[in-house]
Amino acid sequence: MLELYHWEPNIFFLKPLVALAEKGIEYTGHYFDPTNFEQFRPDFPANRESQLQLEREGPVLVHDGAIISSSFFMLEYIAETFPGPTLLPADPSERYRMHAWGQIIALTLGSAVATLGCERYLAPALRSRAAAPLRAQIATIEPLERRSAWAAVVAAGDDEAAARAARDRLALPVARIEAALGRSAWLAGSEYSIADIDAFAMLDPLPSLAPAIVSQRSTPHIDAFLERMHARPAVRAALALSRTGRPAEAFVPGAEGSRWG
Amino acid sequence: MVTLYHWEPNANSGKPMLTLAEKGVAYESHYLDLLKFDQHQPEYLRVNPDGTIPAMVDGDLVLTESTPMMEYIDEAFEGPALRPSDPHARWQMRWWMRFFDAYFAPSLSMIGWSVFVGPAARQRDPAELRAAVERIPLESRRIAWRKALFNEFSEEELTESRRRVAFATGVLEAHLSKHPYICGDAYSLGDINGFNLGYALPLSQPERCNDEKTPHIMEWLRKIYERPATRATWAKGRTQMAARVGMLERGAAGPKRDRGNA
């Protein structure tokens, strides 16, 4: 039995939808709205790992009772468990690059892209709600870091500095992805892999959120990569699962930025 | 032959060292003294332009991310498997490695840098230190070194780091009270990662990590220390930092208050 709890096909939520479509695997989808805090309801699948996972919010896969969270590791799980295209390069050095990209993207884009998306879309939406019940709802979230992430989105109102810092943090990882895609068609090397699904889900919002950093002019290889990804039937099928018709506006708080400054 | 550029068997450097030792892979070792900024010297920047350690070179491939490096070592070389074959146990291993790398380690190392790395490096000429910091290629590492060298950690930051270390220690103790190793019954990369992070916890955090409060962490650390690969790897240490591992010897005197080394 395979069930996927997901929201709009964007950022973390988009990744397993693409991977499962690439594999052609049947599953039961449960659409939920994390901005209505449905992931905190008692009947929502949760365990210690899903509560403490460092992206804070995201999809949850339940496979024969096992609860899988954390979007890149979920991609690895899907790739390693189910039949169909492997989505893993055969060559160990390409596999290393795939793992390394998964880590770099989680720790950089996983924080910065979510911050920018929340600032533009989620923060105004939350602030249009009645403040007291929203505050009360956020106050019950555990653990503390997950609660703080939501509180920060609500508080970020005029915090242009946070958005600027997030844009600054994008420059290095984006430059490295651009260079890698200049060397080979896919991120890990010659073969399409879950690293590409991972990168696509986090890069696709950037031409809109940070046009000075990702655009046809400044990052032609990323631009062509996004176009190649959009042409894949699995990506089209995943994006077609949107219920709002505006998946590119669906954001949740993501990983926190480095605490070292 | 594999070449490994590393510092002490500790934190990120120790991860590939211990993994290679468990696999029985011989390697050409280049010891870089982190406190002397060897990792920012031109010879090393030719290997890893980011100036971070460890780095491993295998043929044409240069590996610079220590956790993915461990997975590569397990995959590319003969020797005992260090990852479970069951995908769910593997997922669990990766979840724990991320929890160690991105939650537990940054907080623990912030404390460690404030009480040990910073004071140790400050013994040197300030002008030379400032020049050394300016040579650091990555801005994020420059910021970290500045904070450590000039003791710019705020009390608020350190308090939060101590809270996180206490919280993470509790999560780890709860997990190990149900499973002998990170992924269940078999030793894996998750344990190698966790040992490099936590082998000195009983010395650096004596109030939080000890035989009374965290018996399962203590047993886990001692079991890992008893492995021949761990002994051989920590024997390569050159400083008091690595020597702290000796307190995991069964029957060793209980931890004395640690003076500085975290």
Please tell me about this protein's structure.
With 261 residues, chain A is of the alpha+beta class. Chain A has a domain at 92-232: Glutathione S-transferase Yfyf (Class Pi), Chain A, domain 2 (Up-down Bundle). Chain A contains twelve helices and four strands; from the N terminus they run βαβαββαααααααααα. Chain A has a four-stranded mixed beta sheet. In chain A, helix 1 (11-23) links the parallel strand 1 (2-6) and strand 2. The model of chain A has no long low-confidence stretch (mean pLDDT 96). Chain B folds into two domains: 2-76, Glutaredoxin (3-Layer(aba) Sandwich), CATH 3.40.30.10; 87-248, Up-down Bundle (Glutathione S-transferase Yfyf (Class Pi), Chain A, domain 2), CATH 1.20.1050. Chain B is built from twelve helices and four strands. Chain B is globular. The longest helix of chain B has 35 residues, at 87-121. Chain B has a four-stranded mixed beta sheet with strand order 2-1-3-4. The model of chain B is unreliable at 257-262 (pLDDT under 50). By secondary structure, chain B is α+β, with helices and mostly antiparallel strands. Chain A binds chain B through residues 48-49, 52-54, 63, 66, 68-70, 73-74, 76-77, 80-81, 92-93, 95-96, 99-100, 102-104, 106-107, 143, 172, 255, 258-261, and chain B through 58, 60-61, 63-65, 67-69, 71-72, 75-76, 87-88, 90-92, 94-95, 98-99, 101-103, 106-107, 110, 138-140, 143-144, 147, 157, 160-161, 167, 171, 174-175.
Topology:
The complex is a heterodimer of chains A (261) and B (262).
Chain A: E1 2-6, H1 11-23, E2 28-31, H2 48-52, E3 60-63, E4 66-68, H3 71-81, H4 92-107, H5 109-127, H6 131-139, H7 144-155, H8 160-183, H9 194-203, H10 206-209, H11 220-230, H12 233-239
Helix pairs in contact in A: 1-3, 1-9, 1-12, 4-9, 5-8, 8-11, 9-11
Chain B: E1 2-6, H1 11-23, E2 27-31, H2 42-45, E3 55-58, E4 61-63, H3 66-76, H4 87-121, H5 126-134, H6 139-149, H7 155-176, H8 189-198, H9 201-204, H10 215-225, H11 228-234, H12 240-243
Parallel strand pairs in B: 1-2
Antiparallel strand pairs in B: 1-3, 3-4
